[in-house]
Amino acid sequence: MKDGFVKIACATPELKVADCDFNTDKMIELIQNACDRGVKIICFPELSITGYTCGDLFLQNALIHSATENLLRLTEEIKNLDIVAIVGLPVEHQNKLYNCAAVVFHGEILGLVPKANIPNYGEFYEMRHFTSGADMDVCGLELSEKHYPAMSINQLFQVTPELTFGIEICEDLWTANTPSVNLAQQGANLIFNLSASDEIIGKADYRRTIIKAKSGSLLCAYAYADAGVGESTQDMTFAGHNIIAENGSILAESKLFESGLTVADIDVSRLASEKRRMNTFQSKNPKPLENFYVSAIMLPLTETKLERYISPLPFVPSDRVVLDGRCEEILKIQAVGLATRLKHIGCQNAVVGLSGGLDSTLALIVMTHAFDMLGLARSGILAVTMPCFGTTDRTYTNACRLAEAYGATLKEIDIKASVRQHFQDIGQEESNHDVVYENSQARERTQILMDMANQCNGIVIGTGDLSELALGWATYNGDHMSMYAVNASVPKTLVRYLVAYEAGHTEETLSAVLKDILDTPVSPELLPPDEAGNIAQKTEDLVGPYELHDFFLYYMLRFGFLPSKIFRMAKHAFAGKYSDEIILKWQKKFYWRFFSQHFKRSCLPDGPKVGSVTLSPRGDFRMPSDACANIWLRELEKMQI
What we know:
single chain; alpha/beta; Nitrilase/N-carbamoyl-D-aminoacid amidohydrolase; 7-stranded mixed sheet; 20 strands; elongated
C-alpha cells in the first residue's frame, strides 16, 4: 500500500437462487481473479451465498445450514490468498435470523455485521424473515468449533490506521441515521455496502447520486456491491450496479446487467488528510470507541499497480460540459468580487496594465463583466499598454485590439525613455540584461498604473495568477502589487481555459483576438525579441512547465502529500510526455521557489477565492516567510529514477 493506494473490488457473481454451493464456487473464482489483479479487499452483494430473492426459503433450516457450511468452505479455500473477502449470508442467533456480512481473511471469520435497517415497504418485505441487528452486540457467536466471530454493527476492521473499513448493508445507506456515519467518525476511511437494489426507471441515477454524496459527506471511499442477473425476476429485476466512489467522485462503475469485478485504486492517505484538515468532521457526541469491536488484519501490503486515472490537470475538469460550467462560475465569482469592491468604495473607474498576454487578458475580461454588472460604462476601464525593450508587435497589437473590442479606454505609454533614465540614475548598463534590467521595467509599469489610478480616481486591478504567486514569478512591488487582484487564486492552467471559454461566447472579432492571445507563448517580455521580432523570453523555459507546477501545487497544498507520492503520481499522470528526470528536476525547482519566495505572498492585495487551493495570507494558507524547504528537498534527493 505504498503512498496510501490500495486496490479494492466490488463483485457481482453469477448466481442461482438458493444454490449455495454454486454461488460459493462463483465467488471463489472471482476472489482468485481479484487477487491476481492485486485487489486487497473484495466485497460481494447482500446475501450473496444464498441469493437475495429466496423469499420464505429463508425460513428453511436446510438453506440456513447450507449458507453457513459454504461460508466455512469459502473461508478454508481462500485461506492462502492475501485478500480480505466480504460476503453476505443469513445467520441464525437465539431463534432469530439476521441478514449479515461476514469478513473473511486467511482462514478466519473476523466478524459478522448484521443489517440494521430492515425495509418493509413497496416491493420489500424483509421483516417477514429478518430481525434488525441495530442493538446487537454478540462477542463470540459460534458458527463452528473453530469460528467465534463478533456480531455487531459497531465493528471496524483495521489493516493500518489509514486503511480501516466498516460495513453497512443495502437499506442502511438509504436511511437518515446510517451506520456509516458512526463508522467514519471512529476512523473508517472505507465503507463497504453489500446490497440487493432492484432496478427501476431512474434508480441508477439516484443510487449514483446518493453514493457520491455519502462518500463526500463522510470523507471516505464508499464501495457498493449490488446483486445482479441470476436473482429471481418473479417481481423484480437486478442489474448489478456496482459503484466505487471516493470523497464525492466516482472512481469506477459497472455497466448495468453485467456480472464480474469492478475495481478501483483507493487513496486512503488522501482521505485521512481530508479528515485532519476538516476540524468539524468529528461529531460532538460520537459513540465511544470502546463500544466498537476492532479487528486487526495482518494483510500483507505491496505496492499497488496504479489503474486509477490521475488527471495531469487537477484544476481543470475533464468533462467539457462541467468545464464550461466551471468557467462560467469562476468568471462570475471574479466579477462579483470586483464589483463588490468597486461599489463599496464608490469607484467608477479601474486601471489595468494590458500586455497582450493571458493574465492581463483575463483581468480585462473580468473587469468588463464587473462593470456590466454595475451598469457602469466600459469607458471607465483604463487599459494601459506600456511597450518597452521586450514588447513584440504581436502582443502590442493584440493589447490594442483587445481594449478596442471591449470598449475600454486605451492609453499607450512607451516606457523606454523612463527606464533608461532610471538606469542612468542607478548606474545600470542597458546592455546588462540581469534581474535589475527586467525588474526595472515591471516596477516602472506599476508606478505608472498606480499614478494613473490616482488621476482618474480609480483602482489598479492586478493580473498575476496563482501559479506565479506559488513560484514567486513576479517582481516584488512590481507586477505582484495592485489594489485588487482578480486572478490571485486562478492557476495558470485554468487561466487558458477561462480565456478560451470567453472566446467561445463572444462576437467574432473579439473571439479572433482572444484566440491569437491563446496561441501566444507565455512570456513577461522583459528581454529583447529575437532577430525575427518574436518572443525570445519564454517563461516555461526558465521556471518549467506550468502544468507540472500546477500539479505539484495542487497535491502539496490541497492534501499535504509527500513529495515522493506527488512524484509517483506525476509519473503516472504525465507518462509519455515528460521523463522521470524532467519531472524530478522541476519538482525540486518548485519546492525551492515555493519556500524561498513566500515573502512575496505575505503582502498580497485582496482578491477573490475561486477554488479549494489558494495562497491568500489572510485565509487558506499561512506560512512563515522563513520556513525551510530542506525536509521536502531531501526526500526528493533520495528518489531513485
